[in-house]
Amino acid sequence: MTTPIALTIAGSDSSGGAGIQADLKTFAALGVYGASVVTALTAQNTRGVSGIHLVPADFVTAQIDAVFADLDVNAVKIGMVAQLATIDAIAAGLDRWSPKHVVLDPVMVATSGDRLLAADAVEALRTKLIPRASLLTPNLPEAAALLDEPVAESEAAIERQGQRLLALGCPAVLIKGGHGQGAESTDYLIRGSGTIALAAPRIATENTHGTGCSLSSAIAACLAKGTDMESAVRTAKAWVGAAIAAADRFDVGHGHGPIHHFHRFY
Predict the structure, then answer these.
(1) Which residues are bridge partners to 104 per DSSP?
(2) Beta bridge partners of 53
(3) Do 206 and 189 form a contact (C-beta atoms < 8 A)?
(4) H helix or E strand, kind and range, residue 224
(5) Whole-angstrom Cα distance, residue 59 to residue 192?
(6) Euclidean distance between CA atoms 72 and 179, whole angstroms
(7) Is-catalytic flag, 25?
(8) Which of 26, 39, 211, 227 is catalytic?
(9) Domains of the chain: which residue ranges?
(10) Annotated catalytic, 212?
């Protein structure tokens, strides 16, 4: 029996709710073995980010090569890349090892509002990582930032931005509607073949730390197990919704607490 393996390339969250820690919890919860490449250390808790220590790009390269040289990686999730040199290292690593699935979560700003991507790295994200991704998973503000446009406020505007993001070179974009308003949170899976609207009830909770990280890693986990893209997105969205719904079982921190990755187990 082949063990499905997923790799997260992202930043560490010292409070355990987002980043590498959330990704590894997600992989484990969905029955996938997780490996990690750390791009940055953050001093972070549920209230915000108080410090970022960047991992040198050559050591990001060393981690990527160590993992791929030994593990049969089925899918890669990319989160916080932090700086231009790291983007170059990741792009070169993807070219060297050619993983089948790459889910790119363009982490630019933390839930707390702290900036997590250097301004000069945004263009490199557009030109070097998006064309190498199988799926791009921006939220509404990130989609707008990637395109230098205002945040989309209608379904037509979201679809138009999705088509512009496709034109940057990735075959699929999932624009997440969690930052929107209304009783439902609707995500839009946009591909050349059309758009699928995925609606779910909006859950009233302050405990949403790590939601975006966990959704993208859940999709990567499903792809690692051989699921097709639409089914992977649907399964991941349902799982994250349940993890958010169970988040208030936790009493962790005094800000935006974490979601409950292991809601199925305890």
Answers:
(1) 78, 136
(2) 41
(3) no
(4) helix 211-224
(5) 37
(6) 36
(7) no
(8) 211
(9) 5-249
(10) yes
Number of residues that make up the chain: 266
- pLDDT on residue 112: 62
**Alpha helices in 119-154, H assignment, sequence order:** 122-124, 140-147
Fold classification of 5-249 (topology level):
UDP-N-acetylmuramoyl-L-alanine:D-glutamate ligase (3.40.1190)
Instruction: Give the span between the Cα atoms of 175 and 154, in whole angstroms.
Output: 12
Which residues make Cβ contacts (< 8 Å) with residue 147, sequence separation at least 6? Answer: 161, 164, 165
Token pair for residue 260?
A: 């409950």
Mean pLDDT of the region 229-241: 96
Interatomic CA distance for residues 11 and 86, integer angstroms: 11
Q: Are 154 and 123 in contact (CB under 8 A)?
A: no
Which amino acid makes up residue 207? N
Task: Decide if 170 is catalytic.
Answer: no
Task: Give how far Cα 200 sits from Cα of 173, 174, 214, Å.
Answer: 18, 15, 17
On whether the CB atoms of residues 218 and 235 are closer than 8 A, the answer is yes
The model's pTM: 0.95
Q: Is 182 left (phi over 0), alpha (psi -120 to 50) or beta?
A: left
Catalytic one of 19, 79, 162, 212: 212
CA-wise closest residue to 78 among 131, 8, 25:
8
| 61: annotated active-site residue | no
Q: Which token pair is 261?
A: 């990755």
pLDDT per residue as tens digits for the range 142-175:
999 899 899 998 999 999 999 999 999 999 999 9
